[in-house]
Amino acid sequence: MERPMSRPIPRNEPVKSLSVSYQGAAAASTWRGLAMGRGGSDLVIAVLLGLGALATLLFGEAYWLLAAQVAITMIFALSVDLLVGFAGIVTLGHAVFFGLGAYAVGIASVELGWTEPLSALLLAGAVSALLGAATGVLVLRTRGLGQLMLTMAFASLVYEIANRAKPLTGGADGLQGMIVSPVAGLFEFDIFGLTAFLYTLAVLIVVVVFAVLMTRSPYGRSLVGIRENRVRMQAIGTGVQRRLLSIYIVSAALAGIAGALLAQTSQFVGLNVLHFSLSGEILIIVALGGAGRLWGALLGAVVFTLFKDRLSALDPAYWYFWLGLLLAVIVLFAPKGLIGLVDRLLALLHRKEAA
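^ thats the sequence. predicted structure below, dont judge the formating
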C-alpha cells in the first residue's frame, strides 16, 4: 500500500519568514543607530521639547505666559546660531534686530493703526532684514575683533536713536498703547496667555522647520564650509561674501520676528529690547546649548529662560551669581554645550548596550 505523499513545504515560506525577521532587525538596528548617533541627540531633544510643550498646554495654565517667552527666546537663539554657529560670524549687537522688530510692530500699531498680527510679523522681519542688509555690507568686511566692535557700534547707535526719539518710541518710558487684533480674526490675546503661547509656538514651529531645511540644504552646508575654511570655498568658486550677507539678512529677519512676537504678546516695547545685555545673553544661550547645533540652541533657550525665571524669583538680588555659577559648571564639564552632554550620555548608553 502506497503511503500518501506529504505536502512539500514551499520554498518561499522560510525565506519569507527570514526576510521579515531580517527587515525587522535591520529597522531596529537603524533606529538604535539613529538614537545613539549625533542625530539621536536632536531627536531626543525634539521629543522632550514637544512633550514639554504638550504638558504646558494641558496642565500648565499658570506658565503659559512664561512658555510664550521661552518660545520667543528660542526663535531669537536660532537666529543667532545660524549666524555664529553655522556661518562663523561673530556679533555682540544682535539685539538691534530683535529690538527693531519690536519697535516696528509697536510703532505700526500706535501710529498707523496696523493691528493685524501676522502681517505685522512680516513687516518686522522685512524692516530688520533691511537693516541687516545695510549693516551687513560693512560688518562682513571685517573679521574677529573688528567685526565685534562694528556690531556693538551699530547696536549702540540704534539704542541711542530710540532713546532720543521719544515722540515716536516713548524713550525711556517705553512705547505704550499698542493694540493687537485677534490672530486670524478669531483668537484674542487673553490675560492667561493661552493665545500668546499657541501663537508663539506656531511661529516657532515654522521657524524651526525653515532653519532645519536650510541648514541641511547645499546652501547650509556651504555656510559650514565657509566657517571651516573660507579660502578653500573661494577656490572652488563659492560666492563667500554673497552667502555670508544672505545669512546675515536671514538671521536679522528672524531676530526681528522674535522681537515682534515679544511686543505683540506683551503689548509694550521698552528700550531693554535694544540693550547690549540682551545681545550678551543670547550669545550665552547659544553657547550653553551648543553652537552650530540648532536643537542645542533651542535647549539652551529653554534652560536659560527657566533658570533665569526661577533664580530671579528665589534670589532677586544675587540671581546673576547663581546663573553665572551654573554656566561655569556647564562650560567646565560640557564644553560642547548641553547637546554635547546629551551626545555623551547617548554614546555611553550605546556602549553599555553593545557590551
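The chain has a mean pLDDT of 84.
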